Amino acid sequence: xxxxxxxxxxxxxxxxxxxxxxxxxxxxxxxxxxxxxxxxxxxxxxxxxxxxxxxxxxxxxxxxxxxxxxxxxxxxxxxxxxxxxxxxxxxxxxxxxxxxxxxxxxxxxxxxxxxxxxxxxxxxxxxxxxxxxxxxxxxxxxxxxxxxxxxxxxxxxxxxxxxxxxxxxxxxxxxxxxxxxxxxxxxxxxxxxxxxxxxxxxxxxxxxxxxxxxxxxxxxxxxxxxxxxxxxxxxxxxxxxxxxxxxxxxxxxxxxxxxxxxxxxxxxxxxxxxxxxxx
Amino acid sequence: xxxxxxxxxxxxxxxxxxxxxxxxxxxxxxxxxxxxxxxxxxxxxxxxxxxxxxxxxxxxxxxxxxxxxxxxxxxxxxxxxxxxxxxxxxxxxxxxxxxxxxxxxxxxxxxxxxxxxxxxxxxxxxxxxxxxxxxxxxxxxxxxxxxxxxxxxxxxxxxxxxxxxxxxxxxxxxxxxxxxxxxxxxxxxxxxxxxxxxxxxxxxxxxxxxxxxxxxxxxxxxxxxxxxxxxxxxxxxxxxxxxxxxxxxxxxxxxxxxxxxxxx
Amino acid sequence: xxxxxxxxxxxxxxxxxxxxxxxxxxxxxxxxxxxxxxxxxxxxxxxxxxxxxxxxxxxxxxxxxxxxxxxxxxxxxxxxxxxxxxxxxxxxxxxxxxxxxxxxxxxxxxxxxxxxxxxxxxxxxxxxxxxxxxxxxxxxxxxxxxxxxxxxxxxxxxxxxxxxxxxxxxxxxxxxxxxxxxxxxxxxxxxxxxxxxxxxxxxxxxxxxxxxxxxxxxxxxxxxxxxxxxxxxxxxxxxxxxxxxxxxxxxxxxxxxxxxxxxxxxxxxxxxxxxxxxxxxxxxxxxxxxxxxxxxxxxxxxxxxxxxxxx
Lengths: 279, 264, 311
Prior knowledge:
The structure holds three protein chains of three kinds. By secondary structure, chain A is an all-alpha fold. Helix content of chain A is about 80%, strand content about 0%. Chain A has helices at about 5-35, 40-65, 75-110, 115, 125-130, 135-155, 160-185, 195-205, 215-225, 230-240, 245-275; strands spanning about 70, 75. In chain A, strands 1-2 form a two-stranded antiparallel sheet. In chain A, a hairpin with a 2-residue loop joins strand 1 and strand 2. The longest helix of chain A is centred in the middle third of the chain and has 35 residues, at about 75-110. By secondary structure, chain B is mostly helical. The two termini of chain B are about 30 Å apart. Chain C is globular, with a radius of gyration of 24 Å. Chain C is an alpha/beta fold. Chain C starts with a strand and ends with a helix. In chain C, helix 7 links the parallel strand 6 (about 175-180) and strand 7. Chains B and C meet through helix 1, helix 6 and helix 13 of B and strand 5 and helix 4 of C.
């Protein structure tokens, strides 16, 4: 029953803020773009960087393919699809989610969160959108291309239901990751060492490059439930490659909603503690 | 000069010991990478009759566990650090001292490695229990390994320090550094043991410094490697260190001149 | 031979031009305009051993740039300078061992350990013989009164305490020339005074030459007999501080307190001070009288205003 409060709040918040929130996001995006435009070669360099990273990943896949046709039950085009999803999810995380959450941790550590708290917008919204690393979107571009190539290679088995399920699961997977990061960032209200834990996550994220099924059991559970990596990458990949049952879609979305509520609650608790502790 | 190194190393050890928790978090995050590779290759090996190109899952486990030590040893000053140094005046301060700034970084990281070596031992024990590597080096291999890991460190330290100097000419250096890192990833033996690659690729890696910072120290310990190759490897390390010093002596004066005309 | 000789020293920078708005930002992706900025314009002066000289000027006037050229961090684009007979440009090791640069608000000390450890590091860097090192270090600790602080990690110290550490750290190798760039910036009044008195003390004791930049008049007033005023990169005044006041003061303030408690303040032109005072005394029942120069800050402002108007 304790979850009712935050859920109602969430509902009310969405109703109140949808217009203002969108406008605010738009403003931040525009300022973010202007900031980045100042560095003129940036776009090309960033694109180059994305291509290099994906290129390396593809070369590694090629080496894997040279030794085998199949990894843990996943065929070549399916593994390629996973790589595409991994790149694109990584790009979105690095563009929208990670910079903001890392900034929250920094601000809490230095007591600078007051800036965000005294503005007339909802604090969680504000701290979640104020930093946008615009150029990381090149990863999304490249990831989508790789995914399309993979799908073309599997053209005989791809159906529109898969794509729809994919988009839905991708979005919910991204929201799960956002919630996870929010909880990590909220933890910084209590623990000082959050910077390092974030680095830990960064390292662990690499495990998403391959379908989670290949890992030994204990690691698999960790990656699925402790860190929603599997939800964000493997599950959408399974959807787009037609390996997923529709029941899983429902489970995923339900899980995401639960995460949204839980993470908001953590955030609120953290804020309260911050308000009490900061001088 | 020795006194200078001793002083920097002592300071570094004391400082990093204070940060041992942070170090632990970082080291644990870092093992995700080799574990991923280990699982992938072991899965393939098991599906193909137990081994590929002579490496069994036990062999892969040995490779990647030693990898974690070598990886920690070859962490050096990131080229990205230069932007901050120039901006906050640290670099200017270093220029005012009558010694070359590189010594501070090399000595400082050396001190850090001593702490890391200590912290690594429990992590290694856990990994050994989880993945059961097969490892049986000779004494010569052990000795060469000890020298090789410091050689690996010096190669990478000098090369990346020189690379970082590019920051004096342009601040948007991320892509350049990333390109360097990524070619290193592929050519060094970091992602896959070089023995898995075709012959032409393995020959190609001789022409880059990366292999000697990574694959060589690992294979020196895990084998299979001939005694002769152990010494050739050490020789190559020395050669690349000298190469790095050469590059540095070309780039450094120009970097200082650039800083002094533009003001940083 | 003078310790520092500067002739027609100049420094110009080329900087990109930035414009406002989204469209201009996009345009700048393709083409960037540059413009030339003169930071220091033909400055000349000579400084003898043991002097304490203040560089005065508003922010961006070129004082720090000049200082950086003297310490070898920046290469001049014109003119010449020499410090202790060396050209700072090449950063010769022999010169670096005899000078020191302290920048206010900048940390050169190692952050996580006590200052004593940083001192040891410096000893190794400058190769100071142990006996000399211990003697100098202990003297500095006493002069700066940091005995209890040197054993604490630097990050636990306040800004003022950290500044004292930086100064001690900078003087361990007994440099002959001290370049102090805004050393009291951001510090509270008490700490400012303490650092000023230390610098004066140090100069008297060891005969070191001190060049100090500041935009706090109080720093300069307390320490420097000689000031060099730099404005818009040009040397506007070089001489005694008192002469500065004399040359640029056009008015003086006369304050009188009358028997009935009233106070009168008159601004008189310099030439008329005597006659104005006389008239005041004659016309009113004056109990107390003071004649003041305008505050030195106003004088400096006047100097800048004049310099600004001059071609």
